[in-house]
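FW: tagging you since you asked about this chain on Friday. Here's the raw sequence from the shared folder, copied in full. Didn't touch anything.
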Amino acid sequence: MRWWPAPPRSRVGRIAMPPISRRSKGSADPVDEPGFSIARGQPAKGKARAVDEASPALPLGLDREPLRQDVREDGATRAIRPLPPLMPAEDEAPLRPEVVEPGRALALADFSPPAVSAGERLLRFAYRLGLPAGALHPFRKRARPRLTATVSNPLPGDAAAGKALRAGHFLVHGMKAAIADTEFTGPRLPPPFERMVHGFAWLPDLEASGPRAQCTGIAERVLGMWLNANPQPNASPAWDVGHTGHRQLTWLIHAPLLLSGSDKKFRSRVLHAMAETARWLDRNVTRADDKLGEVAGWAAITATGLLMADGGPRRLFGEAGLIRALGDMVGDDGGVLSRSPLGQIEAITILVRLKACYAAVRRDPPQQIETILSLLVPPLLALLHGDGALGSWQGAGAVPADQIATLIKASGVRTRPLRDARQWGYQRITAGKSVLLLDAAPPPIARHARDGCASTLAFEFSHGAERLIVNCGGAAFAGGLIPLRLAQGLRATAAHSTLTIDDFNSTAVLINGKLGSGVSEVEVDRRTLQADGSYAAAAPGPQGQSATRIEASHNGYVSRYGLLHQRILILRDDGTELRGEDLLVPQGKKGKRGMIGVALRFHLGPHIELAQGQDGLGVTLALPDGGLWQFRSGREPVTIEESLWADGLGRPLGTRQLVITAKIPRSGESFSWLLKKMR
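HL: got it, structure written out here
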């Protein structure tokens, strides 16, 4: 991983909230503030930030208010509460801003192929050159394709979807499609259906729906339809590397369900299809659309080498490629470079199923696979709310808690959530029963993104099992109950709980799940505030007397409007109060004349009852569990609008959002707000 020192951030003077690296009149001895930056492709550059006027911050509610300092017109200072020092003493080591370059620089570069003997290295090299197994063993009689072990399925499927299969339908994210009417070849299907049909993701569901004897006939019939439609490899989506890898791995794990019938010819046909698929993957695995698809292909090659006769050279070849592909796909903190929690789940699922194949032949997987699996789990846990279900990030929905728990248990990894995933880009704060999640990194670069969203500086907030502030989510589920034409909107900045200017996205949202230009740099600073006004370097103070503060900014609107979006979030350590401030700070020489429209959106969780305040600045939120919260705007009125939220089954649920809109000058402005638990 490469690091560059960044120039010191701009000086701090009179402020309305905790220091946010801006200067105003009356500043005394300025100091530098520590932090770090995350850039999409290049080191961050120092930026001068200045705001002449700022709205006073809403009170935090501590015994003392450490966050404000007033300056009179004559320059004299009337200290309401002294500001804490932002840097250590001169004799202490100062903190320096850090810049992280994403992409290949974040990938694990020290994962080499597993150590093997000289003879095995020779076999692996020969197999990589394309020599078949028969050439590597010229005096051995060539065996027919056969499986040498039976795998115990580590991840049970959905019994309800399996019963729908037995009734003649695929069930994908709440949408039923008749098996008889399904196109198994030809034009593209909606992405969820493609993964279901061509990746054979329905086999675990069918196996979970009843005894094997009752399911074998259904499995043979659907597999026969697919083989008839795809007798040879072709350029259709059926032979996408990712789909093919998942299909081969699923065939191998659920082989007893496919090969338990009495038709010997069909069994032979299935085994030959497995062998032909493995040979195709050997030649085409590196042509995947993204690294996650390539990992699925390498895992299938490795599993085939483990479970099919004479597979030793293929296993060695697959292990080396798999470990290399995992190193290219995963960042140093364990998050996949697509920044997608669904991609994180898929990567863990692939490795869990591959480990089951190793267990079937009583062989230990390479230590690198165990290590990467232990790295993948903590970032996924970091995106779970108090109910144990997933947050809505990068197209994901609220995947149910039991599904996540089953996956984590099958992984065998016991760990805590990753609190500060600086490279994967998500910040997590837990305080009392509250959980705050913040997207504090640029969106994924195009070659990694599948359902990329322009969600930089969006946040989600939950208390206990109830979600108060959410993102819409669900773009990855489009094609089921969520229409495909809605996917583009669900990936937009306005579908996330953050600020937009003139309804433009902070990062351009393109078709096919890709992203264009926009946010290329994010600066983040995270600290603990004590009641006495100091910043704690370690543990917080007494319950209710401290808070966690995150300051972040992104440059997504600089090129178009010359404005930098900065967001400050402060969460009390008892979880009962979240206060924030969103600022637009002028940058460079872009036009500062004229007016622009700003919208600050807070999408609400489902089943929350709302009551508008008389002054128009507040809204009361009544939660299903009986809790009562109040949202207050510091200056602009709050309106209530319709919204949408995708649950973990891909179902769109109607909900509402709180919106603060304003016309502001292009010279910048700030918006303060408060979310407080009343009961």
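FW: The longest helix spans residues 264-284.
HL: agreed, and The first strand starts at residue 3 and ends at 5.
FW: great, closing this out.
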